[in-house]
Amino acid sequence: MLTACVLCLARKPTLVKMAQLLRSPLLSSAAIRSASTGTLEVKEPLNFWGGGRVKPLSSSNAEPVYEPATGHVLCQMVPCVDEEVDQAIKSAHSAYLKWSKMSGMERARVMLEAARIIRERRDDIAKVEVINNGKSITEAKVDIDVAWTCIEYYAGIAGTLAGQHVQLPGSCFAYTRREPLGVCVGIGAWNYPFQIAAWKSAPALACGNAMVFKPSPMTPVTAVMLAEIYAEAGVPEGLFNVVQGGAETGTLLCHHPMVAKVSFTGSVPTGKKIMEMSAKGVKPVTLELGGKSPLIIFQDSELENAVKGALMANFLTQGEVCCNGTRVFVQKDILPKFLEEVVKRTKAIPLGDPLLDGTRMGALISRPHLDRVLGFINQAKKEGARVLCGGEPYVPADPKLKGGYFMSPCVLDNCRDDMTCVKEEIFGPVMSVLPFDTEEEVLQRANNTTFGLAAGVFTRDIARAHRVVENLQAGTCFINNYNISPVEVPFGGYKMSGFGRENGQVTIEYYSQLKTVVVEMGDVDSLF
Ligand SMILES: NC(=O)c1ccc[n+]([C@@H]2O[C@H](COP(=O)([O-])OP(=O)(O)OC[C@H]3O[C@@H](n4cnc5c(N)ncnc54)[C@H](O)[C@@H]3O)[C@@H](O)[C@H]2O)c1
Ligand SMILES: C[N+](C)(C)CCCC=O
Question: What residues does the Aldehyde dehydrogenase domain cover (predicted)?
Fold first, then answer.
């Protein structure tokens, strides 16, 4: 058994031409530590398979990736073509053959080592995440903590995976085996680049699968750092791979015949395409899609907590969070006081250089996305909403941030359920406040959406809290808080927000399959 394990961990590049493969780290710790906003340039290849970084076959279709806080070019993203996707998948498959034969405890040990390395490099990874994504360093550090916690959590589960024994008549019996699926594909969004890669890879690897991960073309940098860490921790060469690209590369991944499953995080329109493509190969999918979640604040709420909850529900990561509670329903009696407090706190959010410890809101992901969010605010005004604060482009005083994609966080009042800002996912720092009278009315309005990712309720009435949650059509509900997602509990949506879950024990079912074995202990009792 020991020999098998040692063999599993031996690293020999087989499928990738040596000339393409690079083994020095993507970014040295010294380079990261000396970087500040606007100074980092990533020149190293961003693909990873066969145990090392891989240079693109051609750079003719390279696309610039911008640092959101400055507008500087951070790196070039070169989409992987057919041949490269094929190499990555074959590399994953050969690693899968080794990894799937290791015991859960053996896999757990390697995963725990990966979690330890991430913990050790947490500040460096967080810094690169900030430079690539624009979110504040305080939030990015939490994201990286969530990532290693997730890997640690599934390492803990890896050794517990087991089947059932079922006694049948005549001393016969059956048993079940929980087996991996094979090569799983992960496709990520740009709002939580490192965390999404961890949320997908941790349960996949714990179950004995391999993964090919494609980050968003706007945030290509940190997934490769995760790949390097898994390799350093000792996974078989090719177990976790990164291919870069957008829709075309994603399509190649979904259609590849050696792919057993696709786990996707992104928008509803892309999720539908992923499902269609996967259906052609009868591949299971996990879809973590968008939302327009309701947050219901009853008049008996502890007001300060409700206000803090509303800010947590709307302004993390510049409002670019799938489960945000962007439709804030407030019971009429407390509406004036709630608005006064929420506006006061929103205006006080420190906005600016995301690498500074005191900053609480950084830059949006891109110039077109910033324009789109500002467009929603203009449309809201045209439809009768009142801007109580923010909603303007923001130019920080620091000259190096002049080209950044900043806007002031916005609270909209006078909203109605039929307005565009209330119906559509804005994915920016825009809170729409809606008054309500009764519990029955607010439940009907809260559920009147095709989305169903999350929902929240603030009340001191414990019976009402549970009654309301029971009737909310959402996969993740919060009582007296918002946007808290411990890795021990499942996260995912109802309705068009997707299906399948990430985190929690249940996710094991989405990355494994059950084999039933029926054992005859006597003679065959044949009908023929
Ligand atoms: N539910 C969740 O857990 C969750 C988390 C984060 C973001 N999101 C959602 O993601 C959206 C924002 O992210 P986005 O703009 O990156 O979403 P997106 O759908 O545009 O892209 C997501 C990913 O899909 C890839 N992609 C695009 N077209 C594809 C295709 N045809 N085939 C295969 N892959 C394809 C992209 O390159 C990217 O990696 C929002 O709607 C947000 O709510 C959901
Ligand atoms: C960690 N959060 C805040 C719950 C976000 C999960 C991922 C959604 O975009």
Answer: 61-517
